[in-house]
Amino acid sequence: MRIGDLSAATGASARSLRYYEEQGLLASTRSGGGQRHYPETAVERVSLIQSLLAAGLNSATIQDVLPCISNEAIRTPWLADRLTSELERVTKQIQDLHRTRDILAGLVEQYRVP
Amino acid sequence: MRIGDLSAATGASARSLRYYEEQGLLASTRSGGGQRHYPETAVERVSLIQSLLAAGLNSATIQDVLPCISNEAIRTPWLADRLTSELERVTKQIQDLHRTRDILAGLVEQYRVP
DNA sequence: GTAAAACTTGACATCCGTGTAAGGGTCAAG
DNA sequence: CTTGACCCTTACACGGATGTCAAGTTTTAC
Predict the structure, then answer these.
(1) Nearest nucleotide by C1' position to the A58 CA atom
(2) In what residue span(s) does the HTH merR-type domain sit (chains A, B) (predicted)?
């Protein structure tokens, strides 16, 4: 599939897909004329990238953390620690968001027009 | 309390506190020489601001949503709708983060050095 | 009264994923 | 072929909270 198809399938803009590749997060092959082609599996990979970005990981971290193009999955304690630390961060973030949601819910209650 | 005390009490930098005031989120009185003074209640208010910022609300939205300096709480259907919409956004964000946390947990499992 | 610490305003810098525009090349259908 | 849709690279801009520097003023401690 070409970049437009992948974009349509994932909701990521073509710009973003090129950026992911530039950051070493997403691989593509090129046709004779230089256009990118992706395997079907790219859809899931982009979805994963989007999730991790939304969770607050930056592309360098994702690059470290995902088995990728030039970066075969190497099992090191360091990598496991890194992942665990990100996991803890996200878990804390979820807890904080719960608190914030409660605050917002309280405001909604308070501001509701009777 | 002065800005340094409030900063220490909340973890927000003095820069951020001035920014909150500039955005109409935080009030202060000034001493003769022009230095800001805050009531004790400012600590809680800053904490609230920080939560809402962390939840992805921008300062304009927070200004709309918080009963504030120049912006007395006016109960309008519009405001309730706005808050509700933010509440839904945060709720969805929490759901998405749960999914991402599971993904990260899976990676941790997978990369763990045996 | 003097020095140090804290504060003021203003301006510019940073991050980083994404948008967007320019100028040109590729590909498939008619 | 030609045409229109799609894609390429390069480069610059943005948002928005926060950092940081500069030059000057206020407050506090001694």
Answers:
(1) C16
(2) 1-68
Number of structural domains chain B divides into: 2
Mark whether B52 and B90 lie in a shared domain: no
Optimal mutation site among B111, B112, B113, interface A, most CBs of chain A within 10 A: B111
Please spell the DSSP secondary structure of B19-37, one letter per residue: HHHHTTS---EE-TTS-EE
C1' of D3 to CA of B86 (Å): 47
Domain membership of residue A85 as a residue range: 74-114
* Same domain membership, residue A65 and residue A83: no
Q: Is A90 on the interface with B (CB under 8 A)?
A: yes
Tens digit of pLDDT per residue, chain A (114 long)? Answer: 999 999 999 999 999 999 999 999 999 999 999 999 999 999 999 999 999 998 888 998 898 888 754 455 566 777 788 888 889 999 999 999 999 999 888 888 877 666
Summarised one tens digit per residue, pLDDT across range B51-84 is: 999 888 889 888 888 864 444 556 667 778 888 8
Q: Do A52 and B100 touch (CB under 8 A)?
A: yes
DSSP codes joined into one string, A12-23: --HHHHHHHHHT
- Cα of B100 vs its chain's centroid, Å: 23
